[in-house]
Amino acid sequence: MLNFTIRRLLLAIPTLLFISLVIFLLLEASPGDPLGDVPLTVPPEVKERMREALGLGQAWYIRYVLWLKQFFWVEPLFWFDQVFGTSFSDGMQRIISFQSRSPVFDVIAQRVPQTLIVVGMSYVVGVMIAIPIGILSAYKQYSWFDQVGTFVSMIGFSMPTFFTGVVMIIIFGVKLQWFPSVYDTTLEVRDWDSFMAQVRQMVMPVTVLALYNAAQVSRFMRASMLDNLGQDYVRTARAKGLGERTVVLKHVLRNSLIPVVTVIALGLPTVFGGALITEQVFKVNGLGQLLITAIYANDLPMVLTVTFLFAILIVMFTLIADILYGVLDPRIRYD
Length: 335
Fold this sequence. Notes:
Keywords: Cell membrane, Membrane, Transmembrane, Transmembrane helix, Transport. Helix content is 76%, strand content 0%. It is globular.
């Protein structure tokens, strides 16, 4: 397993470099100008100096290599200095946003807590709901519970998050006024009242994303459980006199989790991408909303960095899913 992990990590290096190059070239070829919002009254020579100050006067391959150096060398050194009080990164140029003229990673660090609170909580809630529903739906196939679970899952999976989000805002935010329709990112939890205010404003965005995630995971869980419940080893375990709870939860569930692990692991980074729309609907000041505004403003360093971080998450969680295969299924060996 250790050799397999090391090989996969070494393979991830050229893979991520290729992904970063593709993203950079796509952004380079895309229409739009970071200085497109500059007033027409600005003289051309001043506009050209502004372009040079942003580094846009250099060739694309020079800017790409410079970005790689900043991402993999300068930024890690800077955060190392922040933690241990050293000064290795003094005088080095960090990745700077065209839009805010602030270091990109500082802006990302400000947005990550909001994304982790809302999106992370929604994924945890969705998985915790989906797995028991999938198990019971498979064990009680064609029962009323299975029928209701299938119906709710189809609704949650077929309706996009921007639609369910708007519906919840109209019903629970405007009509009933139970929850705030706009997420207050400036709210600080200091006492019980502020904590309850935080919970209230999280209810709708978390519910929207959790419903979508639970619908997908529960369907995979149900299908995997049904496939294993009919296997010979299940009949053998029952014939030996094992209790039904032991057969289902110890033998069937462990084998059924193998394909579901892939869905859960690969769904973690894609949730951040799916939150692009949900964060816009509820005005959550997270990474999704940051990426949307950066695209509108042609903020190439911000778009490139955030998109590449998503790619790193996908590669990392793919490796985690493969490792969990070997943990859950002793038949799988990475020799």
